[in-house]
Design brief:
- By secondary structure, the protein is of the alpha/beta class.
- It has one domain: Ribonuclease H-like superfamily/Ribonuclease H (Nucleotidyltransferase, domain 5), CATH 3.30.420.
- The chain is 43% helix and 23% strand.
- A 5-stranded mixed sheet has the order 3-2-1-4-5, with helices on both faces.
Length: 155
């Protein structure tokens, strides 16, 4: 039985969504790889639009599970851009959770629980992606896809 899962990574005002068809065995297949951008102008209104877009996407594509890259602690001083990205992440989590279960996974935890390498090493490894995923995946979307791969046994 195949499942439809999505991995979502937020960076600034950009939301990367990778939807995978996940079989019970064998490699997942890319169903879609897309980006949503927060509209310019009034942030409150832009959040409402983004919420609706993400919610509609998850509902219309019958996504059964969403894995969102969770916030991480800043190693330096927190800047306004970091806080804005956290707000966008909250909008995305709320939109997805209104339709389907959501797992939040921190990148640092992923590095400790998935495989023997750090997340960034998997992201950079072309051979890993050729072996683990069927279909075309943008390099900038690998982190979102890795969230799904790392969560396969958790749901």
């Amino acid at each position: 039985m195949q499942k439809r899962w999505a991995g979502i990574a937020v960076s600034g005002d950009t939301v990367t969504v990778v939807e995978l068809t996940v079989p019970t065995s064998g490699p997942p297949k890319i169903a879609s790889d897309l980006t949503f951008k927060l509209q310019s102008g009034n942030r409150s209104a832009a959040y409402a639009v983004l919420h609706r877009q993400i919610q509609d996407y998850v509902r219309e594509n019958k996504v059964e599970q969403v894995v969102v890259k969770a916030s991480a602690l800043s190693t330096g001083s927190t800047k306004m851009a970091h806080l804005h990205a956290a707000e966008v992440r909250g909008v995305v989590i709320a939109a997805c959770a209104s339709v389907t279960p959501v797992i939040q996974l921190q990148k640092a935890k992923l590095s400790k629980t998935f495989g023997s390498r750090k997340a960034d090493e998997y992201v950079a490894d072309n051979g890993f992606w050729n072996a683990e995923i069927e279909g075309s995946l943008r390099i900038g979307s690998r982190e979102a896809a890795l969230l799904v791969l790392a969560s396969r046994g958790a749901a």
